[in-house]
Amino acid sequence: MPIDLKQTQLRQQRTILYSLAIGGTLSGLLIWSITPFITQNKTLRYLSLIYTALAGSLTCFSSSVLINNRRIYKALDSSEIDDYLHQLATEQFRQQGYWENRATSANVNPEMLDLQGLPENLPISGNGKNGNLHDPEMLAEVSEAINEGISDSRIIQNILGYKGRYYNEGRNLLKQIKNQMETEQNGE
d(Cα 18, Cα 14) in Å, to the nearest integer? Predict the structure, then answer.
């Protein structure tokens, strides 16, 4: 029997057992509590007590099976999560391979690539293209952006190239650049 079929059967078994436990408890409680108010017939009242006892037994049995199979259900949930993560990783690997193939193929026509709106020098590692305070081109770009009133976050992301988890490093670099610019202005 295939594993998927067994997993499906285990899921159905768990659902049925939960339904029996909840349904037995609620129906037994409802019939047991309502019967004295509806009728004074002793036969019906005894039948309601018997039904409640049977429903309670069903609930106990269902709960017992659920508890005994707890490890199996936990493993099933864990395997479903692992399968999902494996699927995501496989898809990401496929996409990465696809784009690497496209980027490294000799038949790539540069005119077909849409590079508008991207900075000229994108950082390869994602940790900023210029971490040097003495780079005159970078300093000129940053000072021009500051004079134009561009926000710090745009300067950090678009000019310095610090994004994601490296954003704080870019913020620190921008503070250093601003301090350096202030000292140069005060010194003149």
Answer: 6
The residues near 170 (Cβ < 8 Å, ≥ 6 apart) are 128, 156, 157, 160, 161, 162, 163
Residue 149 falls within a domain, yes or no?
yes
State yes or no: pLDDT of 96 exceeds 80.
no
Domain boundary (30, 50, 68) is at: 68
**Alpha-carbon distance 133 to 136, whole Å?**
8
Are 128 and 121 in contact, with CB atoms under 8 Å apart?
Answer: no
Q: Which residues 6+ apart lie within 8 Å of 54 measured at CB?
A: 28
Tell which residue, 182, 183, 184, 162, has the closest CA to residue 173: 162
Domain of residue 145 covers 136-187
120 has a pLDDT exceeding 50:
no
Q: Is residue 161 part of a domain?
A: yes
pTM value? 0.41
How many domains in the chain? 2
Mean pLDDT of 87-112: 65
Q: How many whole angstroms separate alpha carbon 128 and alpha carbon 162?
A: 5
Q: Which two tokens stand for residue 17?
A: 């057992």
